Records
---
Amino acid sequence: MADTVADVHQHEAHGHDDHHHDQSWLEKYVFSTDHKIIGMQYMFTGIFMAVIGGYMAYVFRMQLAFPGISVPGFGQVSPGEYNALITNHGTIMIFWVAMPVLIAAFGNFLIPLMIGADDMVFPRINRLSFQIFFLSSIVLLGSLFVEGGGFGGAWTSYPPLSANGDYNQTQLGASLWLIAVALEFVAFLLGGINFITTLMNSRAPGMKAYDIPLVCWMIVIASILFMLSVGPLLAGAVMLLFDQTLGTGFYDPARGGDPILWQHLFWFFGHPEVYVVLLPAIGITVEVMATFARKKIFGYKLVLYTAVATGVLSFFVWAHHQFIAGIDPRMANVFTITTLLISVPIAEMLFVMIATLYGGSIRLTTPMLWALAFMAEFLIGGVTGIFLGASGADIYFHDTYFVLAHFHYTFFPIAIIGSFCAFTYWFPKMFGKMMNDTLGKIHFWGTVIPFNFIFIPLFVLGMGGQHRRIYNFQHFPQIAGPEYFQLRELATIALLVMLAFQLVFFYNVISSWMRGEKAGKNPWKANTLEWTTESPAPHGNWPVDELPTVYRGPYEYGHPDREEDYWPQNLPN
Amino acid sequence: MNSESATYPTARPTRGEPIIPSGVLGMMIFIFTEIMFFSGLISAHTIVKSQAAGQMWPPYGQPRLPIEETALNSLALLVSGMVLVFTWFAFKRDSGQARIPLMLSIVLGSIFVGFQGTEWVALLADGLTMQSSAYGGFFYLIVGSHAIHAVGALVALMWTYDRLNKDMLRSSQLATVSAFWYFVVLLWPILYWQVYL
């Protein structure tokens, strides 16, 4: 703690005097304190981890569809490896892809630019945050190659399986996995402190609370949720780590401990976590929709208040993950009600999106397509969630492929579609070049159509009662009907198609970056402050004496008194 | 200025001083997270305690915690927190006057941590370890987490003392570090009530 406090003040003392001296390559791109560079570092680490997570999905989907084959690029999958793959796929995609890309990368990149600040309030804490995150990635990837293999107790890591090396057979892998997750939380904790403080204290002159772009609000509300929910999980993780390494008995019933305790501590964090990643994705989507529908967001305050309401409610829904863990049925009733209630604010946000689109002059650019796809796909995820939130139905659906498909129908739109939406929208600001729209659209359709072909079959499998953690269904003849195998094969082939189309994305990014059309300051004719500076923005974001001043809200499109259909926030009139 | 400016006011207030200095605000957010961390530990402890076999707490064969000695020791911590309040007012009047109360606060805090250490040594000798029971595990986990925070806060206070001696301490710095020490001090009675009583 002393270090970070010292850090803060040394920075405050130096201010930004040291902005314009010559920096070496290392200073500029590796040990930078510039929020844009740190955002990029988070982004590229996140993309790298996404590739690994996607590779894992490929390997275990191949094993499920064609049990026992030698998977090209991996080889035969043993049961232990299968468990390690699904566990780390889940962990990576949530904690090393969704969180760093949606919150850390876009939060770092966008918040100072959109509120007219030259940098974060604590730039060196920000750098420390990324360094800890990077370390945590290395620890996680390292845990896959230690003796005994990677941890295979599912991303929820329930004890007693996770607490005892005799049970999970991956003593070292389990501990390293846990340490990696804990380090990652510390990294986001430092990042979150920065986001909240920056939004409170560094806004451009004239920017009042309701002039802040919604995406900044959403990232900050998500950070607050994360801050409030992560403590109990860290406490639980310390206890689990002690159980694993020191031989304590916190989760061991034989010694007076309680294994269900972990589930409560985990899901007390785990459910707000869903909204921690959902809110930034919604913020990104409404931002893009306002720009490309050329319309003011319908109900700015409504979105803001429902986001807060969602945040509050999300702390009272966690036990819907534990309906069959032996909790009191009366408690299950309460949690059913709160869970169904939380669909109200989310539905409200989707209605706001529809109302924003209604009557707008819609331009179907690549980011807009992603935003619309987010709405459509997330809706399916949300509606299927109702069945799982109701304790009666959940007892049947629990731990089947239905849960898995529901979960992916929420997280894929959030983490993948939301990130692509933001990436394609802010690409001109990040790299100063326009992305190729045709390739962007090919990539879009090549991702969204196969996505539905992967997970709709899994809904059907789940309703057929297929359990989600089975390594080889041939070992269970009573549930291994041929029609189920065909559905599994369909899902796997769709996955292969989807992964193949990601090559288009990488090609598009590299080719657009190298020889794309120059973007100019404001290619989308948007209102928010980040479009008033050069693309890419220089160190310090604006020239020192030209920091913007704000005169109005961020979504003044199509104002009747103006010739142009947009009205940037920084123009006096 | 054209006629539009009457309809759409263009003048907005400029950026003033933030209501809460950034350092203090960051520390407050951090403290909220810490409060949730300790709530997690306390609720886990409460659940396990309520489920103990035969409602025996401490469980059979485990030593009783030194309630009285610790109560006395807690007093040192509370007084240290109060002295830090005086430090703040003294600093506001004249930074030189803050030196003695700040040192006193650090010394009292160190006495608390040191005494807790000797208590641990005695308890370990009596057979209370992290592995001996969930009771022992929770005792060392919760009290140990607090001790780590106390040591961290003391180091930060020593850093402020050093800055004060060099006459480089600013009030926002003192406020930030003090906020963390107040958290450590005020948390302790709750932990004492939950773990010892």
---
Amino acid sequence: MAEISEAQDSDSSKLLDSDSKAPQRPDSEPEFDPKLMRKSKPGLKRLFLTFSVLFSFLLGFPFLWKSVEIYRFPLPFREIDSLSTQLRSDTLLFPLHFHALFVGFDSDPDRLRRSILSEITKLTSQNPKCSDNYTLSVTVDLGSRCLRGPTSSPHSSSYQCGSVTAAAFVQNDDVAVDERLASVFGGKTKEYSVAVVKGGSERAVVGKYRHAWMVVGDGSDVGMAAVKVAEVLVKVFINGGREEGLIRNEFMPVGADGKIVLSFNLLNADPHDWVYDWDFEKIDDTLLTPMIEALGPVANISVESQVLYHTPKASFSYWNQKLESYVFSTKDLPFFVNSNEWHLDTSIAAGGRSKILQFAVYVPSAKECPLLLQLPNGEISKTNGFISPMWGGVIVWNPQGCLKDSEFKPSAKNIIPIQDLENMFEVFIGQFRQLFGFKSLNVYTNASGDWNLLPSERGLTEWELDVLSWQHTCFNLHSCATTLGSLSRLVQSLPRMIIKDEIGKQVKLSLEAAKLALSNASSGVYESSAASSSQARSLAEDAFFDPSIMSVSYYSFEHCFAVYSPFFLPVSMHVVLAALRELKRYKQEKAKYLAWKAKANTAT
Amino acid sequence: MVLLQRPHILLLLIGTHQFLQCWIAFGSVNEEGQKQAEFSEELLLKPLPDHKLLAHFHFQSSGPPSTSNGCHHHLFPKAISQLVQKFRIKEMELSFTKGRWNYESWGGFDPLSSSNAKPPGVELWAVFDVPQHHIDASWKNLTHTLSGLFCASINFLESTATYSTPEWSFPPASGNVRYGTLPCEAVCTENLTPWLKLLPCRDKAGIALLLDRPSLYRGFYHSQQLHLTSTGSSSEGIDSGIILEQTLTVVLQPNSEMAIEVHASEKHIQPSWSLSSIFGKQVSGRCVLAKPSSVYLLLDRGLSAANGLTSENFWSNPSFELSANPDRIFLEESSSHSKSLSILYMFQVEKYCESEPFDIGLMWKVPVAWLCQQTPLHASRFLMGSGNERAAIAISLKSTQFTEGFMSANSKDGSCELRVDVFQVVPWYVKVYFHSLRVFVDQQPRAVSDIIEKIHVSPSKDKMSPGVMEVVLKLPCRVNTAALTIEFDKGFLRIDEYLPDANQGFDIPSAIISFPNFHASMVFLEDDSLNKSPLLSKFQEKCPVMSYTEVLLVPLTTPDFSMPYNVITITCTVFALYFGSVLNVLQRSVAEEERFLKAKAAKKTGRLPLLLSKLSAKLRGRRLEPLHSPPSSSSFINSKLVLKVILVAGLAVGWQYFFS
């Protein structure tokens, strides 16, 4: 205040000064008009003061802005965008190596190679997302020496000439042949081999490992064999022998944290008629454990089971006199699962984002037994079960007691015979394969002929696991990119959302893992690529579903405005107006002074 | 191999011969399995003195030891087994209660009331088998899981300010126990449905068929409990499984129309009832999986004494009539401290089927009045004081006179003492002054150290932990009344800590009053069948007599919830005014304004201002100045102001003088 009053004083004294001077010299300068001129320089003090207030005000704004700012970790938006564009534009490339071995043929390996390559390119043109970067080597085994093409291929060198002979294929035991080829091709290498052998009965088999063989008649054409070789390489080894449109490849029933819980339920529709129990532990050890171990790189699978009672189905079935059984048709399937009464329950043991696949064995009550599933073509389903993608599978098991003229009398508590249980679980494993998109049949039929697929005791053969692992990597990376993309869109659209350090850390780690997965995939390290891709996906999901994103303390800009405007609106109006007015006054006064000066100059 | 070579399975192809072979092979497993997992369903009906009926459903499943990582469940509910394994729970009890147990008329000295009378709302306690520093994390996860499982807001027990760690007064005395209550939780059918889902037959068959929602929730008291004990712990190496007890206790009012018809003149006759009249349903056979499935009718000691029933004549009793013949009758083993004996009628549900449903009815012939056996002291709790600042909690214990026989029996020499344990949890915003604890015995203040044998106090921390008080009182046997008072300050809460309905008040959870020297147990004769019935073997267990006090409602000062905005607006306006005036002063150049005014006045000398200035000049006895000088004008304004102030002051003085 002291400053202000001083300023006022000095200012007013100056003005008084000019006032007092003005009447003294009215005659010396008669043209002096106090309205238009002044003799003294206008004071800068007041202007300086008002502007200092204005500037301190303006200077204060950044501090205020800083103080009301909410914490936002700077997310790497650009990197997220680049990841998704990278995944969208250039497809993921998995380097593969194919090896075709011709035994008993006498033709130029380079020519064969060219014809197979052209067939392969014809077949692979339509894979949109994840494709393969393959190399092919062809060996023609002439017994004593080999013709290799290309001659300097590092891959085919492992093959020793003369180790595969036509004699080995004469016997009809496919499993033995498979084992023999596995030892020849060095079963563990990541190389897909097809052996074409001339002489013998025609047969085409895909083995448990990464190879297939084909026995052709003596007089058959080499070109025809090349077409078939290309087909098995593309359709079976790359695409996993699945048909387009059966189940879309993008759907992998794997939880965001890379876990699957297989929940097996035995449903006793009406325990008044009979109650069945099962010996699940035994089946778990013998049938499920090998499969779970085999799928280890793709997903972490756990198994649990329960028995439920009073669980009627929700759809109707009709008595069919000809079949002497109750029949439900495929159009009833959407209503079969009774979500009111089948309290299958999500598992507490499973983490929040694990995928739960429900497998249910339905034991019908006496009123609807035996219960059969009729296919649309009128036939009766042999498995008596069905799957629901991403949910699981159901099998109807008719107990012995409801069959006609059976002397079996159900007691209070029965156990499902182990033979039945094994059959049931084979169906379940087939259903599980179907949920992953594989066929449950062991024959791959194609335009050019049938391929027998040798089943593995682990449920999935090695080449199938390879396919799953690529597909899993590809799916994970895409889903990671989409999740991160939507997170970045969300964050950018809500400028006043708090983003904690954890989210930023997770996003960063996820991006790193995704990059690692990409580089590993292109260098051919599938296992670590699959592992880091699933890590990338789970981290991205963690970031997206972080509880702090949904926190209550997120408040909008309107709220901030409502809190601060009662102060800042009136004050800033005052300050700005004062500054403007002072500026205007100063300019006016200065003009007056200049006018006087000009006049004085002209006078002198 | 097997998998793909034979995927087309025709289940019907399996011959009977093969099947039988398998059947024989699995016979042993079958027996073993039956031994492992068991389920029982029982219902106990008990007429209460005040014309009401107590129905106590008791379902017990015992799970097998988890040999196969506990992933495979046959009879035991999967959810509970996974819960126990995940959080390594040794013992847990969760209860949902609506209404208050009336200790005076429904009794407090039998196993039923001491273990099934619960405080209103949700009560949860759990004992964990984890290292000390993991217990709180386990508790938090457990509350979240349970709230998901039972559709209740148990997750509010997650914050450390809502649960406590009882040291020794809480019955499962152990350091790993956590205890929390939600007194204002509403209990309804959405909590019952998930509870029923844990039963193998749900409410589709067996005794649970009686659980008709409208008649259940019409009752006076409704308590649904889940108690689980994991007998083996993995740290000890032995694992003998989990026992899950699910009980539902309801007190219902039977429709007394039938009784009025028969004995219209007699008002005091007990209402006759039957299962179908109470629940509107009948039991059409047992749940197939339940091993014992039975209904009991309990006539307690007082009732059988009033009826004149003794061990000789209970077959042909004159005062009531049962609509079904009991399969067995159990007599209580005679105890030293009561003359009369309880009688238990047992009905086996197995015998009944859908064509012949089970329905038991009881028809009274003569009016009967009796009293239930009560706790040694009747406890009640109330608030003292008024205002929004301070208050006091008082726990009063009143002798019920009923158990005087006990007391004299317990006193061997002259110094007879009655031990009472009090466990009280108060939320942090009730700031208890523990030094203000005072004890009154027979309305006489007594020194705290005389009466209190042992005390454990853990003071509350703001927003961190509740205050816990555990007291052991030693009262003389002949005591009539005893009271504990303790003062507290009402704390202030932050605006976001208030509940949605803040003006309703805040609940102080029930205190637990237990009498460790008294054990409620009922031992029934004929032991061979007792092993089979989990309900009766539970009655045999010696459990200390316990009672819960009322829930208190403390009104706290509630702010005007729009206050923050009002404060912001007012402060901002004041600041803005201040700023504006300061700027105005800064900017104003008095001299220049004067000049401006002068110029203006010179330009147009209006009639009125001239006249006014002349007038003022005359008033002040000065000569008229043609042009105002700035100081004179300001002094003019000042004098005018002074005049005004004097006028107002004079008016005020006159006003004061006139009215006084």
